[in-house]
Design a protein that fits this description.
about 40% helix; Aspartate Aminotransferase, domain 1; single chain; about 400 residues; 15 helices; 7-stranded mixed sheet; alpha/beta; globular; Aspartate Aminotransferase, domain 2
């Protein structure tokens, strides 16, 4: 339907223009300029902050998501991330775990079964192994192969939960293959896309139904803003997930939404620099005799390199590696770093380093970590945007301190 003609060219209605823009605009532009459908004041270069939580219910059609998503900024932020991911519905929460737990609990009930990839963030693992069983929800864990997922499938399986690249071993799952298999069995697929970001990987385009983010990491990008995001490939999940979200809370303030949107404006620039730095550092570590293993999907020696090359446009800023040293030498190595900071979290502009066995996966038993392949000497590195040579020299000096 043509609304009017301008300079001899047909002009589509605004609603249709927004739909087309979603698929035509590039990530850099989406980050900097949200689509016309998310604008509030055409004269402002930045979004306004609307902290109001009370609205005139007599004009219900103008309400946003009454009862939970009560600010304009929540709706706006969700739409921005949804556009980046190529999804139709985006909802924001006050943490990544709030997004994960609320989404899962809204889609299953007692007696259902969830099939998880066995390499998970420690918090997700605890939610699956401790919280879900108390609610009568069964969980199984599959290795990184279609055969393993097929073998773990049950008649009451409802969801398939994936994480790629995985935390902390950077395993890559063939999303297109699993999505195709899941659709044959009428299963809903969920992917934690935190490590990759929509800049490096877009699971929905590969057939995945729902994408989850700990926005605290790369989307926020500055280690100072906790939030989470859920993006779905269709709006059919909206009423179900919102209904659960209203009961469990997870409210994100208008100011935090504004700060998250401001951070996303530089997402492409940050991720591209982190991709570049991480590949160089991974190649450097791989060349050292003092490093036993390097886990980075951008290295041809990585077991899932070909899958990563197929479905990712960049290999990310996360890696892990094992030093050829005693456990007692690890704290010495970490303490000798002067630029890279031993700290929790990841995805920020500053390079951070940690030992998963003592931090992100400390809630698991040693046996559980061993099952996942997480040794006590494994080190996880979140590469920032600093000068890459400075980072390499920082690592070299720290290695020299332990005679490596």
């Amino acid at each position: 339907m043509v609304e009017r003609v301008f300079c001899g060219r047909p002009v589509l209605p605004a609603e249709r223009q927004v739909k087309i823009l979603r698929y035509m605009r590039k990530q850099e532009t989406i980050c900097t300029h949200p689509s016309p459908g998310t604008q509030n004041h055409e004269s402002a270069a930045t979004s306004a902050i609307f902290p109001a939580v009370a609205y005139n219910y007599l004009n219900a059609e103008q309400l946003l998501y009454p009862g939970f998503f009560t600010t304009y900024n929540q709706k706006r932020l969700g739409e921005i991330v949804a556009e980046l991911e190529g999804g139709e519905l985006g909802l924001v929460f006050n943490s990544g775990m709030a997004a994960i737990s609320t989404t899962i609990l809204s889609l299953v009930k007692a007696g259902d079964h969830i099939l998880f990839f066995n390499e998970l963030y420690g918090g997700t693992w605890r939610f699956a192994t401790e919280e879900l069983p108390q609610r009568g929800i069964q969980c199984s864990f599959a290795e990184n192969s279609l055969e393993s997922f097929e073998a773990a499938l049950q008649s009451n399986t409802r969801l398939v939960y994936l994480e790629t690249p995985s935390n902390p071993l950077m395993s890559i799952i063939d999303l297109e293959e699993i999505a195709y298999w899941a659709k044959k069995h009428n299963l809903i697929t969920l992917v934690d896309n935190t490590f990759a970001t929509p800049i490096n990987q877009r699971p929905i385009a590969l057939g995945i139904d729902i994408v989850l983010h700990s926005g605290t990491k790369y989307l926020g990008g500055h280690n100072d803003l906790p939030f989470g995001v859920m993006v779905a490939n269709t709006t059919e999940y909206k009423s179900t997930i919102l209904s659960t979200a209203k009961l469990y809370g997870g409210f994100l303030s208008a100011l935090s939404c504004y700060e998250a949107e401001r951070s996303i404006k530089t997402l492409v620039l940050r991720v591209e620099r982190q991709n570049e730095n991480a590949l160089k550092i991974a190649q450097y570590l791989e060349s050292l005799a003092s490093v036993k293993k390097v886990f980075y999907p951008g290295l041809p020696a990585h077991k899932d390199y070909l899958i990563a090359k197929k479905q990712m446009s960049g290999f990310g800023g996360m890696m892990s590696f094992e030093l050829d040293c005693t456990p007692d030498e690890l704290p010495v190595f970490l303490s000798e770093l002067s630029i890279i900071k031993p700290a929790l979290s990841l995805g920020g502009v500053e390079s951070l380093i940690c030992v998963p066995a003592a931090t992100s996966h400390s809630g698991m038993t040693k046996a559980e970590r061993n099952t996942m392949g997480i040794s006590d000497s494994l080190i996880r590195l979140s590469v920032g945007i600093e000068n890459c040579q400075d980072l390499i020299e920082d690592i070299a000096i720290a290695l020299n301190s332990i005679g490596k």
